[in-house]
Structures are given as structure tokens and as C-alpha cells.
Amino acid sequence: MKYLIGVDLGTSATKTILMDQEGRIEASAVRSYPLYEPANGWAEQDPHDWRDAVMATIKEVVQKAGVPAEDVAGIGLSGQMHGLVMLDKDGQVLSRSIIWCDARAKKQEDEMFGIMPAEAWMEHTNNPPLAGWTAAKLLWVRENQPDLYAKCRHILLPKDYVRYELTGVFATDVSDASGMQMLDVRNRCWSREVLSRLQVDEELLPEVYESPDITGSLRPEIAAKLGLTACTAVAAGGSDNACAALGTGVVEEGQAFTTIGTSAVIYTHLDHYTQIPGGGLHMCCCAVPGCWHTMGGPQSAGLSVEWFKNGFCQDLEMQAEAEKRSFYDLMNDLAENVPVGSDKLIYLPFLMGERTPHLQADYRGAFLGLNTVHTKAHMLRAIMEGIVYCLTDCNELLKGQGVRVRTMRACGGGSKSPLWRQMMADLYECEVRTLCQEEGPAYGGAILAGTGTGVFSSVPDACARFIKEKDCTLPDAGKTKVYREYHRIYKRMYEALLDGYLELAKVD
Questions:
Q1: Active-site entry in 240, 362, 393, 426
Q2: Residue 240 is a catalytic residue
């Protein structure tokens, strides 16, 4: 029996699983770490925390499962996208990583449009410049921390820094590299035109692989610490969303999933390269070799819930603890007793600015329509609805391009909420399905490791064998009708506030 390890390096924690060649999970482990916010709109993490969490969780699942070290064929890495990790000539971390939801590089985003017009960016990277993507962050460091930039010899994404610590290899994969703003997404390689315009040396960047490719094996000293052998292979892996697609079986045209975690994403698989006009949806290489995907959604999804919980819901947290329930179960119960539309309360889920579908880093969150009738329950439901309104905007862009989603699967923490799934079904106007076993990106990472080491014949074949649907939520025609009106007003409110937010961003 062969075994595989999947690692998901998330924003709040790393989750690692060990599964056998029949897709059964033998052990899992989780380690959390802090997020630093040194200024308004900034978000950083320490790469050493990621390394330590990955090492600890791999060691834990190996010990829990008690399988022979030589039978663990490979490790597949999944990770949060867009983060900037810079190493010096000795491979040492130069600073905390500026992560995906950081919005400080708006000035550099604007400058990138001066370097090349929007049409050229779409031609070369298939995505417009974004403050949250890696290239803009790199320009920010070069402009604001020139001494630090001068020491930089390697630029890596979060999971790829962990790969370096495990293997000593500088490598990335096409799905994660798609979010750096430096990859030619159509041809699945670094864009020399973009690098030339940005004045970034290609030598700073890792080699690019397809997601199932094997990039190296464990360093002997690392293997010994983990209870594995130096023959344990490490696959290229993929971005968190690309790996979540494998973990939910979304590997064919017409399939899609929605995940609600710290951020929220609606993800659609494409067998053929497609350019999305205006960049209203991200277009990236996916973890299935030779295929692509679109994705879009609010950066501050679960983050909005956490912000509200931590700032205003201490009483509800105490109630949940007294009742021996989770806060999120209590939140769902409270929100379910509020009518559709939250009694005319609308939440704009843009605490950290926005990427898709609005591409506006200076936007911020808001409750609109507040009235004396509104309670915490109303505000919690409005947050949930606001997140799905934004996801629906992304789905409507896809429909405008003639992409019809046959199957919508739900994953991530939000998928566990029947109320949230009903909101999705009502606004998407399609069935929303859950899975018998939902392990998300870590499971996708393990599938990539199995494909790369020959345990599985292909990524789609492995997904067809292991991923099975469970429950189905049907749209409610009456609720859909009400939500259409609220969604229309939501979009009008977004447009009405835009100029004000742009002015607010300029205030010193």
C-alpha cells in the first residue's frame, strides 16, 4: 500500500493529511499562526511560521498513521496565492511576507498601467495589474525598501518557500505562478516581455512546472525529522484554489465550486484557454495539465465574519461556549430567523479592498440601510448575503461569456452552513452540492503527489474515483425573486459609493 501527503498552507493555519492509495484519509493535523497588520490595509505573515507548521503537521500525520516511512510515496503542496517571499543569497528570509490580502501597493498597481496599457497586460498575463498580486508587491518593496530589495536573490510564493525548506529546490507550478502577474498564462511560462518591462531579472524566479510534476525529494536531514525517507518525492502542487478544485472533483468543463473561507471564490474549470474581457475574473492555469480556470470573489468573506465576531459579538461567543456550541452554528441559527434581504440591510464585503469583479483596492466595507430594527442577527445575515452577492457578480460575468455551469459544488468552512448554501442556490439559480468527503486543497495536493509518483494514472481519473457528491440544495423560486431585487440594489450602492471611497483613500 502506498501513501500520500497533502499540505494546505492557508492564511489562518496549515492543514495536512495522509491518505492511502484508495483515497482514504488515515490522519490529519492542523497548526495555526498569526496574521500581522502593521498599518491600515496591510497584511503580513512570517514564512518561518509556515515552515514550522508544515514540518509539525507532516510529522504528526506520519506518527498518527504509523505507516512505514518507505511507503509514503510523495508530498503535494497547496498554498495561499500572491504572497511575496524574498530570500537572500544564502536562502535566508529577508522579511515577513506581504500576503494576498495586503492592499498597500495601489500606487504600484497604477504605475504598472503606465508601464503597459491594460490591453497589453491582458495579452501577456491575461489579468490586469492588481495591488494584491505579487508583482505590485515586489515593486512596492523596490520603491520603499530599496536596501531590502538589493539583497533579494530569490522570489517565491508561500508554498514554494516551504518546498525550498523541504527539498532545497527553487520551483513553482503554473497555477500558483499565474497569480504573480509575471506568467504568460496562455503559454504557461514566465513572460519575458513583462519581466523586461518591470525590470525584474528572471534569475530571481523559480522554475515553473505543471502541478503533478515532481520537483525534487526531501533533504535527508528534513526526512529524518519528519520520520520519512529522502526518497519521498515532492510534487509541484498548486494554488489553494486549483488544489481545492481537485479536492472537490472540479476537473471538467462546466463544473464549478464555491468556497467560503477567509476569502471567498467561485471557481470554474475550462478545458480551453479563454480570455475574460476587462479582467473582471482572474484567468489562471489550473492543476490539470493543459487546462485553465477562472476565479473571482471577495477578499473579505470569512474575514468579514471574523472581524464582526471579534469586535462586536463577545456576548454571542460566551453564549456559544455556555451552550457548548460553535459560534458559527449560533450565527446560522440567528441569521436563519431573519428574512431574506435582512430587513433591507445590505453589507458590502470589501474590508481589504477588492479584486474581482470590481478591481478596486481602495474600496472598503459598509453596512447600508441601517435602522433601529436591526440587530446583530440582521448584521450577521447581511454579511453572509453580501458575500454571496459579490460571488453572484462573478457568476454573471461567466454567463456573459457563454460559460454555463452545470454543477456547483460547495467547499470550505462556509459550505457547512445550510443557510449559506441556500443563499448560493437562490442567487446562482442552480443546484449547490456538497461532498461525502470534503478535505479541499490538502486532498488535492495529495492527488497531485499520487499522480506525479505514478500511484494514479491522471488527475481526472483520481478525482472520478474518490470524489462523490452527498447533499443537494435546490433554489427556492420565491427567494430567488426577492434576492434578484436586493442584488440589483447592492450593485447600485457599490457604484454610488465608489467616488467617495477613492477620495477617502487620498486623505493623508
A1: 240
A2: yes
